[in-house]
Protein backbone atom coordinates (compact mmCIF):
# COMPACT_ATOMS: atom_id res chain seq x y z
CA UNK A 1 0.00 0.00 0.00
CA UNK A 2 0.90 3.72 0.05
CA UNK A 3 1.80 3.49 -3.65
CA UNK A 4 1.05 7.16 -4.30
CA UNK A 5 3.73 8.50 -1.97
CA UNK A 6 5.29 11.32 -4.04
CA UNK A 7 8.25 11.78 -1.71
CA UNK A 8 9.76 8.43 -2.27
CA UNK A 9 9.00 6.82 -5.61
CA UNK A 10 8.14 7.43 -9.24
CA UNK A 11 10.55 10.34 -9.16
CA UNK A 12 8.76 11.87 -6.16
CA UNK A 13 11.98 12.09 -4.19
CA UNK A 14 13.03 14.55 -6.91
CA UNK A 15 9.78 16.50 -6.58
CA UNK A 16 10.77 18.07 -3.26
CA UNK A 17 13.74 20.02 -4.71
CA UNK A 18 11.34 21.65 -7.17
CA UNK A 19 9.24 23.09 -4.33
CA UNK A 20 12.39 24.17 -2.48
CA UNK A 21 13.75 25.91 -5.57
CA UNK A 22 10.51 27.79 -6.21
CA UNK A 23 10.32 28.90 -2.56
CA UNK A 24 13.89 30.19 -2.61
CA UNK A 25 13.30 32.02 -5.89
CA UNK A 26 10.00 33.66 -4.95
CA UNK A 27 11.03 34.88 -1.49
CA UNK A 28 14.34 36.31 -2.66
CA UNK A 29 12.78 37.86 -5.75
CA UNK A 30 10.03 39.46 -3.64
CA UNK A 31 12.56 40.94 -1.21
CA UNK A 32 14.71 42.60 -3.85
CA UNK A 33 11.70 43.63 -5.91
CA UNK A 34 10.64 45.60 -2.83
CA UNK A 35 13.97 47.17 -1.77
CA UNK A 36 15.32 47.81 -5.29
CA UNK A 37 12.40 50.13 -5.99
CA UNK A 38 12.76 52.11 -2.80
CA UNK A 39 10.30 50.16 -0.70
CA UNK A 40 10.77 48.95 2.85
CA UNK A 41 10.67 45.23 3.50
CA UNK A 42 8.60 44.62 6.64
CA UNK A 43 9.75 41.49 8.42
CA UNK A 44 6.67 41.40 10.64
CA UNK A 45 4.31 41.72 7.66
CA UNK A 46 6.24 38.98 5.87
CA UNK A 47 5.91 36.61 8.83
CA UNK A 48 2.21 37.40 9.24
CA UNK A 49 1.55 36.67 5.54
CA UNK A 50 3.49 33.41 5.77
CA UNK A 51 1.57 32.35 8.87
CA UNK A 52 -1.78 33.16 7.23
CA UNK A 53 -0.77 31.32 4.09
CA UNK A 54 0.72 28.17 5.64
CA UNK A 55 -0.65 27.63 9.13
CA UNK A 56 -4.42 27.28 8.47
CA UNK A 57 -3.87 24.30 6.16
CA UNK A 58 -1.12 22.78 8.29
CA UNK A 59 -3.09 23.09 11.55
CA UNK A 60 -6.23 21.72 9.94
CA UNK A 61 -4.50 18.66 8.50
CA UNK A 62 -2.93 17.99 11.91
CA UNK A 63 -6.19 18.44 13.82
CA UNK A 64 -8.42 16.69 11.27
CA UNK A 65 -6.00 13.75 11.21
CA UNK A 66 -5.90 13.85 15.00
CA UNK A 67 -9.70 13.67 15.06
CA UNK A 68 -9.69 10.62 12.78
CA UNK A 69 -6.96 8.97 14.85
CA UNK A 70 -8.74 9.48 18.17
CA UNK A 71 -11.95 8.03 16.71
CA UNK A 72 -10.69 5.19 14.50
CA UNK A 73 -6.92 4.60 14.83
CA UNK A 74 -6.01 5.02 18.49
CA UNK A 75 -2.77 3.13 17.90
CA UNK A 76 -1.42 6.26 16.19
CA UNK A 77 -2.07 8.53 19.20
CA UNK A 78 1.41 7.94 20.60
CA UNK A 79 3.65 10.95 19.86
CA UNK A 80 0.77 12.91 18.25
CA UNK A 81 1.36 15.71 20.76
CA UNK A 82 5.05 15.93 19.84
CA UNK A 83 4.26 15.75 16.13
CA UNK A 84 1.80 18.63 16.52
CA UNK A 85 4.18 20.85 18.52
CA UNK A 86 7.24 20.21 16.33
CA UNK A 87 5.25 21.00 13.19
CA UNK A 88 4.00 24.25 14.68
CA UNK A 89 7.59 25.13 15.67
CA UNK A 90 8.98 24.12 12.26
CA UNK A 91 11.40 21.50 13.61
CA UNK A 92 9.49 18.35 12.66
CA UNK A 93 12.19 17.21 10.22
CA UNK A 94 14.73 17.04 13.06
CA UNK A 95 12.19 15.34 15.31
CA UNK A 96 11.80 12.65 12.65
CA UNK A 97 15.57 12.16 12.51
CA UNK A 98 15.93 11.72 16.25
CA UNK A 99 12.64 9.89 16.91
CA UNK A 100 12.56 7.20 14.26
CA UNK A 101 10.03 4.45 14.75
CA UNK A 102 11.20 1.05 15.92
CA UNK A 103 11.44 -1.70 13.33
CA UNK A 104 8.22 -3.41 14.39
CA UNK A 105 6.33 -0.11 14.56
CA UNK A 106 7.23 0.59 10.94
CA UNK A 107 5.90 -2.80 9.85
CA UNK A 108 2.76 -2.93 12.01
CA UNK A 109 0.28 -0.88 9.97
CA UNK A 110 1.45 2.01 12.11
CA UNK A 111 2.63 4.35 9.38
CA UNK A 112 2.47 8.00 10.33
CA UNK A 113 0.14 10.15 8.20
CA UNK A 114 2.45 13.10 8.88
CA UNK A 115 5.75 11.78 7.46
CA UNK A 116 5.69 14.13 4.47
CA UNK A 117 5.37 17.30 6.60
CA UNK A 118 9.15 17.41 7.11
CA UNK A 119 9.42 19.61 4.02
CA UNK A 120 7.23 22.30 5.62
CA UNK A 121 9.60 22.51 8.57
CA UNK A 122 12.60 23.08 6.32
CA UNK A 123 10.70 25.76 4.42
CA UNK A 124 9.57 27.29 7.73
CA UNK A 125 13.17 27.46 8.92
CA UNK A 126 14.11 29.10 5.65
CA UNK A 127 11.28 31.67 5.93
CA UNK A 128 12.48 32.62 9.41
CA UNK A 129 16.22 32.93 8.76
CA UNK A 130 16.69 33.96 5.11
CA UNK A 131 14.73 37.27 5.22
CA UNK A 132 16.76 38.30 8.28
CA UNK A 133 19.98 37.57 6.39
CA UNK A 134 18.72 39.55 3.39
CA UNK A 135 17.88 42.53 5.62
CA UNK A 136 21.39 42.39 7.10
CA UNK A 137 22.93 42.13 3.63
CA UNK A 138 20.91 45.17 2.51
CA UNK A 139 21.76 47.15 5.66
CA UNK A 140 25.50 46.66 5.10
CA UNK A 141 25.22 47.26 1.34
CA UNK A 142 26.45 43.82 0.38
CA UNK A 143 26.48 43.53 -3.40
CA UNK A 144 24.15 41.06 -5.06
CA UNK A 145 27.12 39.36 -6.66
CA UNK A 146 28.50 38.57 -3.20
CA UNK A 147 25.13 37.39 -1.93
CA UNK A 148 24.93 35.17 -5.00
CA UNK A 149 28.43 33.85 -4.28
CA UNK A 150 27.47 33.18 -0.66
CA UNK A 151 24.36 31.28 -1.78
CA UNK A 152 26.29 29.15 -4.26
CA UNK A 153 29.14 28.32 -1.85
CA UNK A 154 26.75 27.24 0.92
CA UNK A 155 24.66 25.32 -1.62
CA UNK A 156 27.69 23.37 -2.85
CA UNK A 157 28.82 22.69 0.74
CA UNK A 158 25.34 21.34 1.52
CA UNK A 159 25.44 19.01 -1.51
CA UNK A 160 28.94 17.79 -0.61
CA UNK A 161 27.83 17.21 2.99
CA UNK A 162 24.95 15.06 1.71
CA UNK A 163 27.42 12.99 -0.35
CA UNK A 164 29.76 12.56 2.62
CA UNK A 165 27.00 11.41 4.99
CA UNK A 166 25.46 8.97 2.52
CA UNK A 167 26.35 5.32 3.11
CA UNK A 168 25.00 2.69 0.67
CA UNK A 169 22.70 0.19 2.33
CA UNK A 170 22.15 2.42 5.37
CA UNK A 171 18.82 4.14 6.05
CA UNK A 172 19.18 7.58 4.39
CA UNK A 173 16.61 9.31 6.65
CA UNK A 174 19.25 11.52 8.27
CA UNK A 175 20.31 13.07 4.98
CA UNK A 176 16.83 12.96 3.47
CA UNK A 177 15.22 14.96 6.28
CA UNK A 178 18.18 17.12 7.35
CA UNK A 179 18.01 20.88 6.77
CA UNK A 180 21.77 20.99 6.27
CA UNK A 181 21.72 18.32 3.56
CA UNK A 182 18.70 19.71 1.68
CA UNK A 183 19.60 23.40 1.81
CA UNK A 184 21.25 23.41 -1.62
CA UNK A 185 17.94 23.31 -3.51
CA UNK A 186 16.52 26.36 -1.71
CA UNK A 187 19.74 28.34 -2.09
CA UNK A 188 19.97 27.60 -5.80
CA UNK A 189 16.51 29.17 -6.11
CA UNK A 190 17.73 32.17 -4.10
CA UNK A 191 20.74 32.52 -6.38
CA UNK A 192 18.53 32.41 -9.47
CA UNK A 193 16.42 35.30 -8.13
CA UNK A 194 19.58 37.39 -7.74
CA UNK A 195 20.69 37.00 -11.37
CA UNK A 196 17.29 36.45 -13.04
CA UNK A 197 14.72 38.68 -11.25
CA UNK A 198 11.21 38.20 -12.61
CA UNK A 199 10.41 41.94 -12.57
CA UNK A 200 13.23 42.71 -15.00
CA UNK A 201 12.31 40.00 -17.48
CA UNK A 202 10.57 41.81 -20.34
CA UNK A 203 8.90 40.48 -23.45
CA UNK A 204 10.11 41.47 -26.90
CA UNK A 205 12.92 39.00 -27.54
CA UNK A 206 13.98 38.41 -31.11
CA UNK A 207 12.73 35.22 -32.71
CA UNK A 208 16.20 33.72 -32.68
CA UNK A 209 16.57 34.42 -28.96
CA UNK A 210 13.11 33.02 -28.28
CA UNK A 211 14.10 29.84 -30.07
CA UNK A 212 17.24 29.51 -27.96
CA UNK A 213 15.28 30.17 -24.77
CA UNK A 214 12.64 27.56 -25.59
CA UNK A 215 15.30 25.06 -26.66
CA UNK A 216 17.07 25.46 -23.31
CA UNK A 217 13.69 24.93 -21.64
CA UNK A 218 13.05 21.78 -23.68
CA UNK A 219 16.49 20.32 -22.93
CA UNK A 220 16.28 21.06 -19.22
CA UNK A 221 12.75 19.67 -19.00
CA UNK A 222 13.82 16.53 -20.89
CA UNK A 223 16.76 16.04 -18.55
CA UNK A 224 14.46 16.48 -15.54
CA UNK A 225 12.11 13.79 -16.86
CA UNK A 226 15.02 11.50 -17.70
CA UNK A 227 16.38 11.75 -14.16
CA UNK A 228 12.94 11.30 -12.58
CA UNK A 229 12.23 8.11 -14.50
CA UNK A 230 15.71 6.55 -14.54
CA UNK A 231 17.33 7.33 -11.19
CA UNK A 232 16.17 4.92 -8.53
CA UNK A 233 15.81 6.11 -4.96
CA UNK A 234 18.40 3.48 -3.95
CA UNK A 235 20.99 4.75 -6.44
CA UNK A 236 24.03 6.21 -4.61
CA UNK A 237 24.33 8.73 -7.46
CA UNK A 238 21.12 10.38 -6.25
CA UNK A 239 22.79 11.40 -2.98
CA UNK A 240 26.28 11.83 -4.39
CA UNK A 241 25.52 14.69 -6.72
CA UNK A 242 22.43 13.46 -8.56
CA UNK A 243 19.97 15.51 -6.52
CA UNK A 244 22.20 18.57 -6.88
CA UNK A 245 22.43 18.13 -10.66
CA UNK A 246 18.66 17.72 -10.80
CA UNK A 247 18.25 20.94 -8.77
CA UNK A 248 20.55 22.84 -11.13
CA UNK A 249 18.63 21.50 -14.14
CA UNK A 250 15.32 22.48 -12.54
CA UNK A 251 16.74 25.90 -11.73
CA UNK A 252 17.44 26.43 -15.43
CA UNK A 253 13.93 25.29 -16.34
CA UNK A 254 12.39 27.68 -13.77
CA UNK A 255 14.43 30.50 -15.29
CA UNK A 256 12.99 29.72 -18.72
CA UNK A 257 9.42 29.44 -17.38
CA UNK A 258 9.77 32.80 -15.60
CA UNK A 259 10.48 34.65 -18.87
CA UNK A 260 7.29 36.10 -20.42
CA UNK A 261 8.47 35.28 -23.97
CA UNK A 262 8.97 31.63 -23.14
CA UNK A 263 6.75 29.04 -24.75
CA UNK A 264 6.85 27.21 -21.39
CA UNK A 265 5.53 30.27 -19.58
CA UNK A 266 2.39 30.11 -21.67
CA UNK A 267 1.92 26.38 -21.16
CA UNK A 268 2.29 26.50 -17.40
CA UNK A 269 0.09 29.58 -17.07
CA UNK A 270 -3.09 27.97 -18.43
CA UNK A 271 -6.19 27.45 -16.28
CA UNK A 272 -5.50 23.81 -15.43
CA UNK A 273 -1.99 24.48 -14.15
CA UNK A 274 -3.20 27.61 -12.41
CA UNK A 275 -5.84 25.60 -10.57
CA UNK A 276 -3.35 22.90 -9.59
CA UNK A 277 -0.91 25.59 -8.49
CA UNK A 278 -3.42 27.27 -6.19
CA UNK A 279 -4.27 23.88 -4.63
CA UNK A 280 -0.79 22.36 -4.67
CA UNK A 281 -0.19 23.12 -1.00
CA UNK A 282 -3.39 21.33 0.01
CA UNK A 283 -2.78 18.44 -2.36
CA UNK A 284 0.59 17.98 -0.70
CA UNK A 285 -0.82 18.26 2.83
CA UNK A 286 -3.66 15.76 2.48
CA UNK A 287 -2.06 13.09 0.30
CA UNK A 288 -0.61 10.98 3.12
CA UNK A 289 -3.51 11.17 5.61
CA UNK A 290 -6.06 10.29 2.91
CA UNK A 291 -4.00 7.35 1.59
CA UNK A 292 -3.16 5.90 4.98
CA UNK A 293 -6.61 6.33 6.51
CA UNK A 294 -8.36 5.03 3.40
CA UNK A 295 -6.13 2.01 3.03
CA UNK A 296 -6.32 1.11 6.73
CA UNK A 297 -10.12 1.28 6.58
CA UNK A 298 -10.78 -0.36 3.21
CA UNK A 299 -7.91 -2.77 2.77
CA UNK A 300 -9.60 -4.95 0.15
CA UNK A 301 -10.38 -1.97 -2.07
CA UNK A 302 -6.96 -0.45 -1.37
CA UNK A 303 -5.24 -3.52 -2.77
CA UNK A 304 -7.05 -3.15 -6.10
CA UNK A 305 -4.47 -2.05 -8.73
CA UNK A 306 -6.84 0.31 -10.61
CA UNK A 307 -9.67 1.20 -8.26
CA UNK A 308 -7.65 2.29 -5.23
CA UNK A 309 -5.55 5.02 -6.92
CA UNK A 310 -8.62 6.45 -8.63
CA UNK A 311 -10.58 6.61 -5.38
CA UNK A 312 -7.60 8.03 -3.47
CA UNK A 313 -6.94 10.76 -6.02
CA UNK A 314 -10.62 11.77 -5.97
CA UNK A 315 -10.65 11.84 -2.17
CA UNK A 316 -7.42 13.89 -2.00
CA UNK A 317 -8.81 16.43 -4.49
CA UNK A 318 -12.15 16.69 -2.65
CA UNK A 319 -10.56 17.12 0.78
CA UNK A 320 -8.10 19.64 -0.65
CA UNK A 321 -10.91 21.65 -2.25
CA UNK A 322 -12.90 21.65 1.00
CA UNK A 323 -9.88 22.83 2.96
CA UNK A 324 -8.99 25.49 0.38
CA UNK A 325 -12.49 26.97 0.20
CA UNK A 326 -13.61 26.75 3.80
CA UNK A 327 -10.42 26.77 5.89
CA UNK A 328 -7.33 28.13 4.14
CA UNK A 329 -8.83 31.00 2.14
CA UNK A 330 -11.24 32.31 4.81
CA UNK A 331 -8.54 32.31 7.50
CA UNK A 332 -5.88 33.76 5.20
CA UNK A 333 -8.05 36.83 4.56
CA UNK A 334 -9.97 36.97 7.83
CA UNK A 335 -10.13 40.10 9.97
CA UNK A 336 -11.45 40.45 13.50
CA UNK A 337 -14.53 42.24 12.20
CA UNK A 338 -15.31 39.22 10.01
CA UNK A 339 -15.31 37.00 13.08
CA UNK A 340 -17.60 39.36 15.03
CA UNK A 341 -20.08 39.65 12.17
CA UNK A 342 -19.97 36.01 11.08
CA UNK A 343 -23.22 34.85 12.72
CA UNK A 344 -25.03 37.99 11.58
CA UNK A 345 -24.16 37.97 7.90
CA UNK A 346 -23.40 34.33 7.09
CA UNK A 347 -25.87 31.89 5.58
CA UNK A 348 -27.14 28.81 7.37
CA UNK A 349 -24.89 26.60 5.19
CA UNK A 350 -21.81 28.62 6.17
CA UNK A 351 -22.73 28.32 9.84
CA UNK A 352 -23.15 24.54 9.55
CA UNK A 353 -19.79 24.24 7.80
CA UNK A 354 -18.18 26.39 10.48
CA UNK A 355 -19.70 24.15 13.15
CA UNK A 356 -18.43 20.99 11.40
CA UNK A 357 -14.91 22.45 11.13
CA UNK A 358 -15.02 23.52 14.78
CA UNK A 359 -16.06 20.01 15.89
CA UNK A 360 -13.26 18.48 13.82
CA UNK A 361 -10.69 20.84 15.31
CA UNK A 362 -11.94 20.33 18.88
CA UNK A 363 -11.85 16.54 18.46
CA UNK A 364 -8.37 16.78 17.00
CA UNK A 365 -7.27 19.01 19.89
CA UNK A 366 -8.63 16.42 22.32
CA UNK A 367 -6.53 13.81 20.49
CA UNK A 368 -3.39 15.95 20.84
CA UNK A 369 -4.00 16.37 24.59
CA UNK A 370 -4.84 12.67 25.04
CA UNK A 371 -1.63 11.73 23.20
CA UNK A 372 0.44 13.11 26.11
CA UNK A 373 -0.54 10.06 28.17
CA UNK A 374 -1.05 7.61 25.31
CA UNK A 375 0.85 4.34 25.83
CA UNK A 376 3.57 3.36 23.41
CA UNK A 377 2.37 0.63 21.00
CA UNK A 378 3.53 -2.72 22.30
CA UNK A 379 4.59 -3.96 18.88
CA UNK A 380 8.13 -4.76 20.02
CA UNK A 381 6.62 -7.47 22.24
CA UNK A 382 4.17 -8.78 19.68
CA UNK A 383 3.92 -12.42 18.65
CA UNK A 384 6.13 -11.69 15.64
CA UNK A 385 8.79 -9.84 17.65
CA UNK A 386 8.86 -12.57 20.29
CA UNK A 387 9.18 -15.30 17.67
CA UNK A 388 12.07 -13.59 15.89
CA UNK A 389 13.87 -12.99 19.20
CA UNK A 390 13.40 -16.66 20.14
CA UNK A 391 14.64 -17.83 16.71
CA UNK A 392 17.72 -15.61 16.86
CA UNK A 393 18.70 -16.93 20.28
CA UNK A 394 18.16 -20.56 19.27
CA UNK A 395 20.02 -20.09 15.98
CA UNK A 396 23.08 -18.42 17.53
CA UNK A 397 24.49 -21.60 19.12
CA UNK A 398 23.52 -23.79 16.14
CA UNK A 399 25.23 -21.41 13.74
CA UNK A 400 28.52 -21.59 15.64
CA UNK A 401 28.43 -25.41 15.71
CA UNK A 402 27.68 -25.50 11.99
CA UNK A 403 30.67 -23.25 11.27
CA UNK A 404 32.93 -25.55 13.30
CA UNK A 405 31.59 -28.65 11.51
CA UNK A 406 31.99 -27.09 8.08
CA UNK A 407 35.60 -26.12 8.79
CA UNK A 408 36.35 -29.77 9.53
CA UNK A 409 34.29 -31.25 6.68
CA UNK A 410 36.04 -31.38 3.31
CA UNK A 411 33.37 -33.41 1.49
CA UNK A 412 30.66 -30.90 2.35
CA UNK A 413 32.53 -28.10 0.58
CA UNK A 414 32.40 -29.92 -2.74
CA UNK A 415 28.83 -31.21 -2.43
CA UNK A 416 26.06 -29.27 -4.17
CA UNK A 417 22.96 -31.29 -3.32
CA UNK A 418 22.37 -32.50 -6.89
CA UNK A 419 20.67 -35.90 -6.77
CA UNK A 420 22.00 -39.03 -8.49
CA UNK A 421 20.15 -42.29 -9.12
CA UNK A 422 21.80 -43.88 -6.10
CA UNK A 423 20.80 -40.90 -3.97
CA UNK A 424 17.19 -41.27 -5.06
CA UNK A 425 17.11 -44.95 -4.06
CA UNK A 426 18.61 -44.07 -0.67
CA UNK A 427 16.11 -41.26 -0.06
CA UNK A 428 13.22 -43.48 -1.12
CA UNK A 429 14.27 -46.16 1.33
CA UNK A 430 14.72 -43.66 4.15
CA UNK A 431 11.34 -42.09 3.36
CA UNK A 432 9.65 -45.41 4.09
CA UNK A 433 11.70 -46.52 7.07
CA UNK A 434 12.40 -43.21 8.86
CA UNK A 435 10.07 -40.40 7.68
CA UNK A 436 11.07 -36.92 8.89
CA UNK A 437 9.41 -33.50 9.14
CA UNK A 438 6.07 -34.95 8.14
CA UNK A 439 4.31 -31.69 9.08
CA UNK A 440 5.78 -30.13 5.90
CA UNK A 441 4.21 -32.68 3.57
CA UNK A 442 0.91 -30.83 3.36
CA UNK A 443 2.83 -27.75 2.18
CA UNK A 444 4.01 -29.45 -1.00
CA UNK A 445 7.20 -31.24 0.05
CA UNK A 446 7.32 -34.99 -0.53
CA UNK A 447 9.03 -37.25 1.97
CA UNK A 448 11.79 -37.83 -0.60
CA UNK A 449 12.25 -34.05 -0.83
CA UNK A 450 12.45 -33.81 2.94
CA UNK A 451 15.09 -36.55 3.11
CA UNK A 452 17.08 -34.94 0.31
CA UNK A 453 17.12 -31.46 1.87
CA UNK A 454 19.25 -32.81 4.71
CA UNK A 455 22.09 -33.27 2.17
CA UNK A 456 21.82 -29.82 0.57
CA UNK A 457 24.66 -27.52 1.73
CA UNK A 458 23.53 -23.96 2.27
CA UNK A 459 24.71 -20.61 3.60
CA UNK A 460 21.87 -18.16 4.07
CA UNK A 461 21.93 -14.45 4.86
CA UNK A 462 18.74 -12.47 5.28
CA UNK A 463 16.59 -9.97 7.11
CA UNK A 464 13.66 -10.32 9.50
CA UNK A 465 11.48 -12.30 7.08
CA UNK A 466 14.14 -15.01 6.96
CA UNK A 467 14.68 -14.64 10.73
CA UNK A 468 10.95 -15.26 11.16
CA UNK A 469 11.30 -18.55 9.24
CA UNK A 470 14.77 -19.59 10.43
CA UNK A 471 13.39 -22.24 12.82
CA UNK A 472 11.68 -23.98 9.89
CA UNK A 473 14.75 -23.70 7.66
CA UNK A 474 16.85 -25.35 10.37
CA UNK A 475 14.32 -28.21 10.52
CA UNK A 476 14.29 -28.69 6.75
CA UNK A 477 18.06 -28.53 6.27
CA UNK A 478 20.77 -30.13 8.44
CA UNK A 479 21.32 -27.58 11.20
CA UNK A 480 24.80 -29.06 11.85
CA UNK A 481 25.96 -28.20 8.34
CA UNK A 482 23.80 -25.26 7.28
CA UNK A 483 24.31 -21.61 8.28
CA UNK A 484 21.22 -19.40 8.59
CA UNK A 485 22.27 -15.84 9.45
CA UNK A 486 19.22 -13.56 9.54
CA UNK A 487 18.52 -10.45 11.63
CA UNK A 488 16.02 -7.64 12.05
CA UNK A 489 16.57 -4.43 10.02
CA UNK A 490 19.41 -5.97 8.00
CA UNK A 491 20.27 -4.29 4.70
CA UNK A 492 22.67 -5.00 1.88
CA UNK A 493 25.82 -3.38 3.29
CA UNK A 494 26.05 -5.58 6.39
CA UNK A 495 25.31 -8.71 4.35
CA UNK A 496 28.29 -8.20 2.07
CA UNK A 497 30.60 -8.17 5.09
CA UNK A 498 28.94 -11.31 6.53
CA UNK A 499 29.33 -13.27 3.30
CA UNK A 500 32.95 -12.15 3.00
CA UNK A 501 33.58 -13.35 6.55
CA UNK A 502 32.09 -16.80 5.81
CA UNK A 503 34.12 -17.01 2.62
CA UNK A 504 37.31 -16.11 4.48
CA UNK A 505 36.57 -18.89 6.99
CA UNK A 506 36.05 -21.38 4.18
CA UNK A 507 32.44 -22.12 5.14
CA UNK A 508 30.60 -20.42 2.29
CA UNK A 509 28.53 -23.28 0.83
CA UNK A 510 28.10 -24.08 -2.89
CA UNK A 511 24.49 -22.88 -2.46
CA UNK A 512 24.00 -19.37 -1.10
CA UNK A 513 20.52 -18.17 -0.13
CA UNK A 514 19.82 -14.43 0.15
CA UNK A 515 16.71 -12.85 1.63
CA UNK A 516 17.13 -9.07 1.55
CA UNK A 517 15.05 -6.10 0.43
CA UNK A 518 12.37 -5.88 3.11
CA UNK A 519 14.03 -2.91 4.79
CA UNK A 520 14.98 -0.85 1.79
CA UNK A 521 15.84 -0.90 -1.89
CA UNK A 522 19.14 -1.81 -3.49
CA UNK A 523 20.55 -1.45 -6.99
CA UNK A 524 22.24 -3.61 -9.60
CA UNK A 525 25.68 -2.49 -8.46
CA UNK A 526 25.02 -3.82 -4.96
CA UNK A 527 23.70 -7.11 -6.34
CA UNK A 528 26.87 -7.26 -8.42
CA UNK A 529 28.95 -6.93 -5.24
CA UNK A 530 27.31 -10.03 -3.80
CA UNK A 531 27.58 -12.01 -7.02
CA UNK A 532 31.27 -11.13 -7.43
CA UNK A 533 31.99 -12.04 -3.83
CA UNK A 534 30.17 -15.39 -4.10
CA UNK A 535 31.85 -16.18 -7.39
CA UNK A 536 30.62 -18.05 -10.50
CA UNK A 537 31.14 -21.55 -9.06
CA UNK A 538 28.51 -21.13 -6.36
CA UNK A 539 24.79 -20.76 -7.02
CA UNK A 540 22.80 -17.93 -5.46
CA UNK A 541 19.12 -18.32 -4.56
CA UNK A 542 17.64 -14.89 -3.92
CA UNK A 543 14.17 -14.73 -2.38
CA UNK A 544 12.35 -11.69 -3.70
CA UNK A 545 10.15 -9.58 -1.42
CA UNK A 546 6.50 -9.38 -0.48
CA UNK A 547 6.37 -5.95 1.14
CA UNK A 548 3.24 -4.16 -0.19
CA UNK A 549 3.35 -1.69 2.69
CA UNK A 550 6.55 -0.22 1.28
CA UNK A 551 6.99 1.49 -2.09
CA UNK A 552 10.30 -0.20 -2.86
CA UNK A 553 8.75 -3.63 -3.40
CA UNK A 554 8.66 -3.21 -7.20
CA UNK A 555 12.15 -1.69 -7.28
CA UNK A 556 13.73 -4.59 -5.38
CA UNK A 557 11.94 -7.27 -7.41
CA UNK A 558 12.65 -5.44 -10.67
CA UNK A 559 16.38 -5.27 -9.91
CA UNK A 560 16.43 -9.00 -9.12
CA UNK A 561 14.61 -9.87 -12.36
CA UNK A 562 17.12 -7.79 -14.29
CA UNK A 563 20.02 -9.44 -12.45
CA UNK A 564 18.97 -12.95 -13.57
CA UNK A 565 19.66 -11.89 -17.16
CA UNK A 566 23.22 -10.96 -16.22
CA UNK A 567 24.16 -13.76 -13.82
CA UNK A 568 23.61 -17.37 -14.90
CA UNK A 569 24.29 -18.64 -11.38
CA UNK A 570 21.46 -16.56 -9.90
CA UNK A 571 17.97 -17.95 -9.35
CA UNK A 572 15.23 -15.66 -8.04
CA UNK A 573 12.71 -17.46 -5.84
CA UNK A 574 9.47 -15.65 -6.56
CA UNK A 575 7.90 -15.51 -3.09
CA UNK A 576 6.10 -12.32 -4.12
CA UNK A 577 4.08 -14.05 -6.86
CA UNK A 578 3.52 -17.23 -4.82
CA UNK A 579 2.10 -15.29 -1.87
CA UNK A 580 -0.19 -12.98 -3.85
CA UNK A 581 -3.77 -13.09 -2.61
CA UNK A 582 -2.84 -14.95 0.58
CA UNK A 583 -3.23 -12.23 3.20
CA UNK A 584 -4.07 -15.02 5.68
CA UNK A 585 -0.41 -16.11 5.52
CA UNK A 586 0.80 -12.88 7.09
CA UNK A 587 0.71 -10.97 10.33
CA UNK A 588 -1.16 -7.66 10.28
CA UNK A 589 1.86 -5.94 8.74
CA UNK A 590 1.26 -7.95 5.51
CA UNK A 591 5.03 -8.48 5.30
CA UNK A 592 6.12 -11.15 7.80
CA UNK A 593 4.61 -14.63 7.47
CA UNK A 594 2.58 -15.84 10.45
CA UNK A 595 3.17 -19.42 11.75
CA UNK A 596 1.11 -20.98 8.95
CA UNK A 597 2.52 -18.57 6.37
CA UNK A 598 6.04 -19.39 7.52
CA UNK A 599 5.42 -23.04 6.66
CA UNK A 600 4.35 -22.01 3.15
CA UNK A 601 7.31 -19.62 2.87
CA UNK A 602 10.03 -22.07 3.92
CA UNK A 603 8.49 -25.02 2.04
CA UNK A 604 8.21 -23.00 -1.17
CA UNK A 605 11.82 -21.79 -0.91
CA UNK A 606 13.04 -25.34 -0.27
CA UNK A 607 11.05 -26.70 -3.25
CA UNK A 608 12.46 -24.02 -5.55
CA UNK A 609 16.02 -24.81 -4.48
CA UNK A 610 15.52 -28.52 -5.18
CA UNK A 611 13.91 -27.72 -8.54
CA UNK A 612 16.91 -25.59 -9.51
CA UNK A 613 19.39 -28.29 -8.44
CA UNK A 614 17.62 -30.81 -10.70
CA UNK A 615 18.15 -28.50 -13.69
CA UNK A 616 21.92 -28.36 -13.29
UniProtKB/TrEMBL annotation:
The keyword Phosphoprotein does not apply. Its main location: membrane. Coiled coil: none annotated. GO terms for biological process: lipopolysaccharide biosynthetic process. One of its GO terms (molecular function) is acyltransferase activity, transferring groups other than amino-acyl groups. It comes from the Bacteria. Residues 10-319 form the Acyltransferase domain. The keyword Lipid biosynthesis does not apply. The chain crosses the membrane at residues 12-32, 53-73, 117-138, 147-166, 181-199, 211-231, 237-260, 272-294, 306-327, 348-369. Signal peptide: none annotated. It is found in: Cell membrane. It is a multi-pass membrane protein. Pfam families: Acyl_transf_3. Keywords: Acyltransferase, Cell membrane, Membrane, Transferase, Transmembrane, Transmembrane helix. GO terms for cellular component: plasma membrane. InterPro entries: Acyl_transf_3_dom, Acyltransferase_3, SGNH_hydro_sf. PANTHER family: ACETYLTRANSFERASE, ACYL_TRANSF_3 DOMAIN-CONTAINING PROTEIN. This is Acyltransferase 3 domain-containing protein.
Amino acid sequence: MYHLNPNVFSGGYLGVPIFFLISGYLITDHFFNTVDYGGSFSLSNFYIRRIKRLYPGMLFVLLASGAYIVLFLKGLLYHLDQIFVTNVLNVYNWWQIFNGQSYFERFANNESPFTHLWTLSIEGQFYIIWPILLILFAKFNVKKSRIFGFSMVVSIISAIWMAILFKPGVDPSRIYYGTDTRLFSILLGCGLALIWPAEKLKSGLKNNDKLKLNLVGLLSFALMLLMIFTIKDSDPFLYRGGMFIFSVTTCIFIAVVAHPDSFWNGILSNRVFHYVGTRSYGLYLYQFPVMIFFESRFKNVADHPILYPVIEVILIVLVTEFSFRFVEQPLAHAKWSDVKNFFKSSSAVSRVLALVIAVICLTGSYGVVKAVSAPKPNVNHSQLANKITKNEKANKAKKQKAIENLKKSKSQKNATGKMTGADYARYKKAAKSHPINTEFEKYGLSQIDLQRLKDVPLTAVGDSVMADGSDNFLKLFDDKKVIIDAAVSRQMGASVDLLQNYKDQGVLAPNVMIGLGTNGPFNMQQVGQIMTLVGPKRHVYWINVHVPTRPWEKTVNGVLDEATKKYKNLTVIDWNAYSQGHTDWFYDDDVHPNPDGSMYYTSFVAKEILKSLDKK
